[in-house]
Amino acid sequence: MRFPVDDVAAKRLREWIDAGEGGLDAVGLDMSEADLSHADFSESWFTDARLTNVKLIGAELYRSDAQGADLTGADLTGSSLVRVNLDDAILRNATLDGANLVKSSLYDVDASGASCRGTQFKGASLLGVDFCSADLSDSVFGENSFQVTLGRNTKLEGASGSIFGSVVIVEEEITRELSGTELQEWIAERGGVTQVLDRAPGIPKKDI
């Protein structure tokens, strides 16, 4: 483990380790550049925290709250983010390869340039997520609410499962909205085998 450079954040982390129980309260703290890999942060609070370039490889974050957190460049490879609240978070250029985001909530999230190779998204709410230039190769979906933005450089090879919703496609200076069969064909052209399902209009409630 490498402690954050910020003194307040480092002190809070040491106190939490010494306590040996409960979740970490890192609300609003600057945890940047820390290496917190393989630690158990179940039911912790990272709300509005700065977590840029943090290493959380293989970490357990079950039911944690990271709403509004800045995870730009963070490495969450193989981490468990089951039922984590990531609403309004920044995941720009973050690495989520092999991570488990089952039943997580991502509303209005900037995940542009993120690497999500083999990421499990089953049951996650993906509403207003920017996946432009992201790598979603081999990612797995399962009846996901999927109202996202995809770009010409978004990688979808091997992506599988099923999704609900319409998608905004940004290609050069042209923006268009695709749903149903058209969206399914667009994904298939890029090597994905995702099934686009029909559902009644309306945004589902968050399941956290």
Automatic annotation (TrEMBL):
This is Pentapeptide repeat-containing protein. The keyword Repeat applies. The lineage of its organism: Bacteria, Bacillati, Actinomycetota, Actinomycetes, Kitasatosporales. SUPFAM superfamilies: Pentapeptide repeat-like. It comes from Streptomyces spinoverrucosus. It holds the Pfam family Pentapeptide. Signal peptide: none annotated. InterPro entries: 5peptide_repeat. Keywords: Repeat.
